[in-house]
Amino acid sequence: MIKAVIDIGTNSTRLFVADEKLNPIKKMLSTTRLGEGILSSPFMLDIAMERTSDKVKEFVEIAKGAGAEKIYIYATAVVREAKNKDVFAKMIFDKTGIKLDIIPGFMEGEIAFLGAAEG
To answer: Cβ(47)–Cβ(66) under 8 Å?
Structure first.
């Protein structure tokens, strides 16, 4: 079964599509800057949320086009800490029909470690 993961970070959004043995089918990266302005306000900017959610929608379409039967979307620190995270999560669901998972910090660290360890 082909699966896809979309990782929404502070500065970039990534797509990884792979088969059941984790052989990559498609990898993409887009600098979406969701965290733009977050240092001066506890809220994500509307323009940054629109830009990022549009890219996520595009990545979902690409993943489906590559044959992905399951698509997992998660977000990290910027969304976890923003006061308007629910607005962004709804925006993602409305555009993709997929629930956004806002992962805890320890899980973000584990994912980063696994990515570095696996090269």
So the answer is: no
